[in-house]
Design goal:
282 residues, alpha+beta, Aminopeptidase, 2 domains, 12 strands
Length: 282
């Protein structure tokens, strides 16, 4: 009989195989799995509990991750999962604040419990990958306006970084947290900024690394300095350094952010998979 069960270390190889056979659809799950496997390291907010959907033949056809920072990540290959009360019980137990996965999969599972949610906000995004990286390598030129972020930036440019956190809808990070994020990337050319001689006005950094891929994110330019090509320049430089370090650049972008998509496409990024994110309040 098909069932939902909590995955343990003994399931490691079958889960690994599932994730990498369905990599683009499982990319969010891969970030969690690559770091801690199936073990929930409670001190790590990005770690979590893994559940699996097994068919009558004991084939794994769905993975659900409930992280310690209350995200619900999913990938499903079999619609029979929507008949499973145990999955609904798990969702009610963990009460996630965000749900994300391939758009069709999210829609399928969302219908199971949407009536139990007080409020929600639905958004659609997509992952893009730089497949033709040779063109970027051939055309790349260093831009003197770009520099690596320094530890002092987080403290000296606190207004910019608070503006950044607000733009991305996150709780404000402390100065120490901002400094730590930068310090972790100093010397690796993974946190780049542009300033106007007085303050930082644009930034971007490498958010995550998943096997052979490095995800670029946090791309932001203050409104007054937009339409100067800063975002494109930062993404181009980050992509170049990622490739030089042997990885392939990827990024995520909201599907209605036409200006950003146009910039990424001009650098030869192409869409790989549509993702949906639902912000939830139970």
């Amino acid at each position: 009989m098909s069932s939902i069960k909590k995955l343990t270390q003994s399931d490691h190889e079958i889960v690994k195989s599932y994730i990498y056979q369905n990599f683009w659809g499982c990319i969010e799950i891969a970030k969690v799995f690559d770091k801690n496997g199936l073990k929930n390291k409670l001190s790590d907010k990005n770690s979590g509990d893994f559940l699996g959907f097994f068919t009558d033949e004991n084939n794994l056809e769905g993975i659900f991750v409930f992280t310690n920072n209350r995200r619900f990540l999913l990938h499903v290959k079999n619609s029979d999962v929507t008949k499973k009360v145990d999955l609904l019980k798990a969702i009610k137990y963990y009460k996630p604040e965000f749900m994300s996965g391939p758009s069709e999969h999210v829609k399928m599972v969302w219908h199971m419990f949407e009536r139990t949610v007080k409020r929600y906000k639905y958004s659609n995004s997509m992952y893009m990958v730089l497949e033709d990286y040779q063109t970027l390598l051939n055309q790349f030129k260093e831009n003197e306006s770009i520099r690596e972020a320094s530890k002092a930036d987080a403290k000296e440019q606190i207004k910019f970084f608070l503006e950044l956190e607000k733009h991305f809808g996150r709780n404000h990070m402390t100065i120490n947290q901002l400094q730590n994020r930068i310090v972790e990337r100093i010397g690796l050319k993974e946190y780049l900024v542009i300033d106007d001689g007085i303050r930082v006005v644009a930034q971007g950094f490498v958010e995550d690394k998943i096997k052979a891929f490095s995800q670029i994110g946090g791309i932001y330019t203050t409104p007054k300095f937009r339409n100067n090509g800063y975002a494109r320049t930062i993404v181009e430089h980050l992509s170049y350094y990622v490739i030089q370090n042997g990885n392939i650049p990827i990024l995520a972008v909201l599907k209605d952010n036409d200006s950003a998509i146009k910039v990424y496409e001009s650098l030869q990024f192409i869409a790989k998979v549509d993702f949906s994110i639902i912000e939830l309040e139970f």
